Amino acid sequence: MGRHVMTDAGRDLRRGEFLDAARALFRERGELPSVAEIAKAAGLAKGTVYLYFATKEEIFVALLEEEFEKLFVALSAALEELPEEPALASSQFARSYTETLFAQPDLLPLAALANAVLEQNLPTEAMRRFKTQLAVGLVTAGKRLESLVPGLATEESPQAGETLLLRTYAMTLGLWQALAYPKALLPILNEPTLLPLNRQFTSEIEGTIESLWRGELDRARLQNPPEDAGKI
Amino acid sequence: MGRHVMTDAGRDLRRGEFLDAARALFRERGELPSVAEIAKAAGLAKGTVYLYFATKEEIFVALLEEEFEKLFVALSAALEELPEEPALASSQFARSYTETLFAQPDLLPLAALANAVLEQNLPTEAMRRFKTQLAVGLVTAGKRLESLVPGLATEESPQAGETLLLRTYAMTLGLWQALAYPKALLPILNEPTLLPLNRQFTSEIEGTIESLWRGELDRARLQNPPEDAGKI
Amino acid sequence: MGRHVMTDAGRDLRRGEFLDAARALFRERGELPSVAEIAKAAGLAKGTVYLYFATKEEIFVALLEEEFEKLFVALSAALEELPEEPALASSQFARSYTETLFAQPDLLPLAALANAVLEQNLPTEAMRRFKTQLAVGLVTAGKRLESLVPGLATEESPQAGETLLLRTYAMTLGLWQALAYPKALLPILNEPTLLPLNRQFTSEIEGTIESLWRGELDRARLQNPPEDAGKI
Amino acid sequence: MGRHVMTDAGRDLRRGEFLDAARALFRERGELPSVAEIAKAAGLAKGTVYLYFATKEEIFVALLEEEFEKLFVALSAALEELPEEPALASSQFARSYTETLFAQPDLLPLAALANAVLEQNLPTEAMRRFKTQLAVGLVTAGKRLESLVPGLATEESPQAGETLLLRTYAMTLGLWQALAYPKALLPILNEPTLLPLNRQFTSEIEGTIESLWRGELDRARLQNPPEDAGKI
DNA sequence: GATGAATGAGCTTTCATTCAT
DNA sequence: TATGAATGAAAGCTCATTCAT
């Protein structure tokens, strides 16, 4: 042991300082800051970073984990408030989900880097932790969703809740990447031929998610009509 | 004239040699090769690369353009064969689309880099060309789709064809990234907690796209019922 | 021989086109343009440049030769008009010389590169031509100066005219370099500690040259007093 | 702390190692060595160079600063020993100054690059430091010179000491450049037409400086005759 | 636990020059 | 004569990571 025995809490505290610094720099710049910058911003030395993270990428995956953590919490809350009626449920979920995305401005910029950049230099252990978090979160929320929406899970697709959530995330990530432009190129977006792509993610996402959910929930309802439906 | 008279076609040929080399290396490695490697693989000098491409990123965006070119051609063909009936149309399109994706194994790995990597160091002109291709392709196919599916475009969403295609692409891109694993990490995928994520993109994508289309096409049909529907 | 037999005049014409292009670009940029740019500006191909110049540096040495050619002509004229009286001669020469410098704005920027850059990659032959031009010009003007200023040349320093002219040039070149600032750094020139260096070449040169000449001409007069001096 | 505790002195030591390596290579080759060569010669890595210098040019400007530092020290000493009598003062200063130049063989080769090469890629801060050193040195020595030579500074030219020193430096720099030949071309110097230029800087400089100073000091004496001059 | 000096592979890019046509 | 495609050495610089202290 070194000068100080570092408790787990102390360790997490220090880790958190690096994460805070990294997050602030990333949000500011729009691109991954260097390790030197992160250390400086955290008021510690470059080498110290490597006492808490195995690679630079691990830092940003940790940030991403924090984002997913929050997202799952918000998701869970949104599911509990889900109305029964498909149309209503879809639009309400879409709105709530969209608000969550806006409340987590680092989520998508980080998620967009996950595959192409972050996972390229991630130690196996960190990779496992990250993916496990996603898996557990998806399964948990998926199961709850299935229990809340009768008819969603069928024999053919027993994990329909999980599937819907996965698709929701995939659509979000893909749409964000398709519509995000490097800052430097915003000017050209107003050229006539590019107008079709000049859709703002912020205005597209809610309708898209609503549509996605509506399709699935409608089908669930068809397979499991409300009990009083026949009475009419 | 130079060492060889280089016609436009000759120029394209040379360009193509670099592109072929770059594609082969990228497919092999799974990550962007260096310019030096590309030149070497093409049997030409490093400096020569820069006679044909302004930056390294331009090379891979050019590859991506080729992929999109093919994709739009395939898309166009798929649209022409679209059955009228929504369920049939959805499943047939999903199958055809999926086959196209499998036939273009470089499309998604490149597309996943577009946002995070390629567009970071792309000359404005190349950026414009790339984005214009996408915009034109989307609009063209979108309009054709609208003309083929009565009721798809409505007053509220006059570009519903374009929108559906954009969502199709976004879902594809997002799903691929959510499910793609770095080669090095495939082993851990079999751990129990990760099983939920051990869905293969290849087995998920068809159903997902079918579902997406089904939702939209069903709604279109509701708004524009077949003429003989009432006769029964 | 090729397509055309090129006469000497034709050859010089073409050469001149490159020189004009090179001069214009150099004046515009303040630094040596690339061979590609020169060729393009001249409306000819890169390779063609090398039919007329052995190296890039030879181009700019040729420009410098043109400048020296003009300088020697102007110098010659100035010498012919030199008054007898030392004070008057010095001030008149200094003024005339300064005007010549201002009329040849490319002379000093090129001369400043001669030693550090141009002569580094100059074929022996071009080097010889350049230096010979200088030597002949100096000797010619020096001898004329000696004949016009009695007492200048002495037994001890038989080439005093030549020497004075060499010193005149050296002082000019050195002063220009000492006082020239890269454009990018003009702002800092106003800082208090730098004020002593914020002398403009344009306002320093005339007095400096006058002073230099005055010292030499006075001494010459002392050694060879005007014939009627004793009569008074 | 790092591998070694690096005090300011330690840092200067390391910096000095790079400077020594750079100086040795420059003297040997006669042209700027590459950063890679400097690092190798210093027995350290390329990247390490950039921990001590922002650009390659900064290295050589630092060397030049060392040279100027020494020059100003020598200058200061020379001034203190200046005899009163102009002719004597001029010749003694010229000799002392010349010896200093010979004792600093890197000064002029570096100074000749300053304008054309070194200042082209110099960070503003380094530029400021360099120019400030020159300004302060000139002013300091100039004022001392004025106090030692009565009559040198007049109402018309209150900074005559500074001016004389600036001219001294300019003449030196210009003369060196006018007479310096690339090593490769020394052979041709013996050709008859080039003989006039085959003056060695080493044999010209002393007389030139003496002459320059003599002119100025004589004039100062005229304006401020020694007190006992009239008594005779 | 913390440091930060050192590393050095790695990168993209430039451009004077050549030479087959 | 003229071309311009091709060259490829050379360069400066960055930055994640290591490790002796």
Describe the structure.
The structure is a homotetramer of 232-residue chains. The first copy, chain A, is globular, with a radius of gyration of 21 Å. The first copy, chain A, is mostly helical and 232 residues long. Chain A folds into 2 domains: 8-53, Arc Repressor Mutant, subunit A (Orthogonal Bundle), CATH 1.10.10.60; 55-223, Tetracycline Repressor, domain 2. In chain A, helix 4 runs antiparallel to helix 5 (86-103). The first copy, chain A, is built from 9 helices and no strands. Chains in contact: A-B, C-D. Chain C binds a DNA duplex (21 and 21 nucleotides) through helix 2 and helix 3.
Write a concise keyword list for the protein shown above:
homotetramer, 232 residues, mainly alpha, Arc Repressor Mutant, subunit A, Tetracycline Repressor, domain 2, 2 domains, 9 helices, globular, DNA-binding
Summarize the structure.
4 copies of one chain form a homotetramer. The first copy, chain A, is an all-alpha fold.
Amino- and carboxy-terminal Cα gap of chain A: 75 Å
Structural class of chain A: mainly alpha
Shape of chain A: globular
CATH topology term of the largest domain in chain A: Tetracycline Repressor, domain 2
Please identify which CATH superfamily of the largest domain in chain A we are dealing with.
Tetracycline Repressor, domain 2
Average per-residue pLDDT of chain A, rounded, comes to: 89
Tally of individual helices of chain A:
9
- How large is the radius of gyration of chain A? 21 Å
Low-confidence stretches of chain A: none
Share of β-strand residues of chain A: under 5%
- The helix/strand order of chain A is HHHHHHHHH
CATH class of the largest domain in chain A: Mainly Alpha
As a percent range, the share of helical residues of chain A equals: 55-70%
CATH architecture of the largest domain in chain A: Orthogonal Bundle
Assembly annotation: homotetramer
Largest sheet of chain A: none
Report the strand count of chain A.
Answer: 0
Number of domains of chain A: 2
